[in-house]
């Protein structure tokens, strides 16, 4: 029976991470793909020419007869070596040649505390195999993994580079992620110090790279977490229907083509519907235009609000995990997606955000009581309907519009403050990361502008209604 694997993200992010679903694998270098951006093979990857034959010898079976490792403009990738038709199975990788926590040396496993998770264990495996060099049974695979200079996730950016994206939520997410890795490093060090012959020159930098390779490349399935050699060379296409499937009966992972490919074309899979914030943090690349971009915004009840405690209590009463899109008053964080229709229902602006704004604009205990009564009479969700007082409804959305306008101004300043793209002394790496920062910030600004346009139209309609009522 075939089952789709899913991303590692939820397994390794810290519990405080609020927003973006993380992903499962790393692109080698700065790479992106889409249907309109499909690239032809630039050249065969001579460094990995023997990789597939080695893996097939190790597996004892044929893994793929239609794919080869090559180099595109964006780095190492998989390309069609023969005609591929939609529905064809293009690769099968047995579980026996996938790297799972069971591959960890028993003596090291016994020394690790219960606090050490699966990701850290897989990272240790990579470090052990790398230390063994050509004596490792996985040497051919380890040698093909990207080095520090080829990784562009923001956890490897300098503080100066990170300052370019300080306006984005990715900045704080990067700090959280680095702290998580440092915590896991501290948890494994006592055990690894027992094996100086293996981990003599072991550093946080080494661990961070290995940890990132796991979190960006591994797949989670019913068999657990694993690295799947060869499959993890495949690049991302946000509109592809191809994913990694797991056949528990046959004990293998496979990929089915979702379209036709001519020889020499890059073959792609879908990592998920991720915004640039996720792609940059977890993979180290961005898309110039990402239809899945979304923006994190914070909205607070001011301390000087005389009804602050009543509002917080009301929000708390209506915060329940059983209700979809419920307001959690312990979190003042919301996600805005691009509002496609400027005069539609506002899909993209979360109902919870608009509800929060309605509660925020209440000026009396009676108004709050009315909202609580209305919620009890419908589905329990607070302030999900337009306020009966059109003026209050207008005020709520004007407050939200003002907040978003302020954010837009900040993003505009951040984008304009980026160093010129053609700055003479700019290194290739910095130029690449500057472009990623621009893709991230401009995508966020586009989302905010779409929300602003919709809110302006909604407020205009409310003003027209109020004008008619006053006649």
UniProtKB/TrEMBL annotation:
InterPro entries (UniProt xref): Rubisco_LSMT_subst-bd, Rubisco_LSMT_subst-bd_sf, SET_dom, SET_dom_sf, SET_RBCMT, SETD3_SETD6_MTase
MF-aspect GO terms: protein-lysine N-methyltransferase activity
GO biological process: methylation
Coiled-coil annotated spans: none
Keywords per UniProt: Methyltransferase, S-adenosyl-L-methionine, Transferase
SUPFAM superfamilies in the cross-refs: SET domain
Cited PROSITE patterns: SET
Domain of life: Eukaryota
Domain SET stretches: 59-272
PANTHER family per record: OS01G0976450 PROTEIN (PTHR13271:SF134), UNCHARACTERIZED PUTATIVE METHYLTRANSFERASE (PTHR13271)
Protein name, entry field: Ribulose-1,5 bisphosphate carboxylase/oxygenase large subunit N-methyltransferase, chloroplastic
Organism: Theobroma cacao
Gene: LOC18586294
């Amino acid at each position: 029976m075939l089952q789709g694997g899913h991303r590692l993200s939820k397994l390794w992010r810290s519990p405080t991470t609020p927003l973006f679903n993380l992903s499962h694998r790393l692109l080698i270098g700065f790479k992106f793909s889409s249907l309109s951006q499909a690239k032809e093979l630039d050249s065969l990857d001579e460094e990995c020419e023997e990789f597939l034959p080695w893996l097939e010898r190790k597996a004892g079976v044929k893994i793929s007869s239609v794919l080869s490792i090559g180099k595109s403009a964006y780095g190492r990738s998989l390309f069609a070596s023969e005609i591929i038709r939609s529905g064809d199975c293009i690769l099968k990788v047995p579980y026996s040649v996938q790297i799972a926590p069971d591959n960890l040396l028993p003596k090291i496993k016994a020394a690790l505390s219960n606090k050490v998770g699966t990701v850290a264990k897989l990272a240790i495996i990579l470090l052990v195999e790398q230390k063994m060099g050509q004596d490792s049974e996985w040497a051919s695979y380890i040698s093909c993994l990207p080095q520090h200079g080829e990784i562009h996730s923001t956890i490897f950016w300098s503080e100066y580079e990170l300052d370019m994206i300080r306006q984005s939520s990715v900045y704080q997410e990067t700090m959280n992620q680095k702290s998580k890795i440092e915590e896991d490093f501290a948890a494994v060090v006592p055990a690894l110090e027992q094996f100086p012959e293996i981990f003599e020159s072991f550093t946080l930098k080494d661990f961070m790279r290995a940890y990132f390779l796991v979190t960006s490349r591994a797949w989670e399935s019913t068999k657990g977490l694993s690295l799947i050699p060869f499959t993890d060379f495949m690049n991302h296409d946000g509109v592809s229907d191809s994913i990694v499937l797991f056949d528990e009966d046959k004990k293998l992972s496979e990929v089915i083509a979702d379209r036709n490919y001519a020889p020499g074309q890059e073959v792609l899979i879908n990592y998920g519907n991720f915004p640039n914030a996720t792609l940059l943090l977890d993979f180290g690349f961005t898309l110039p235009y990402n239809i899945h971009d979304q923006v994190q915004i914070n909205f607070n009840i001011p301390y000087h609000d005389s009804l602050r405690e009543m509002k917080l209590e009301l929000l708390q009463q209506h915060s329940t995990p059983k209700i979809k899109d419920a307001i959690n008053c312990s979190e003042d964080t919301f996600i805005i997606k691009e509002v496609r229709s400027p005069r539609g229902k506002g899909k993209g602006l979360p109902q919870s955000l608009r509800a929060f704004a309605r509660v925020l604009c209440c000026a009396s205990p009676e108004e709050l009581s009315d909202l609580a009564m209305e919620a009890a009479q419908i589905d329990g969700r607070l302030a999900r309907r337009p306020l009966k007082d059109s003026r209050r409804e207008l005020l709520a959305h004007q407050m939200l519009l003002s907040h978003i306008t302020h954010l837009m101004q900040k993003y505009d300043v951040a984008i304009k403050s980026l160093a010129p793209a053609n700055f003479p002394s700019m290194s290739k790496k910095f130029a690449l990361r500057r472009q990623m920062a621009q893709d991230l910030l401009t995508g966020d600004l586009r989302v905010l502008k779409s929300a602003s346009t919709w809110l302006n139209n909604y407020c205009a309609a409310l003003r027209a209604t109020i004008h008619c009522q006053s006649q």
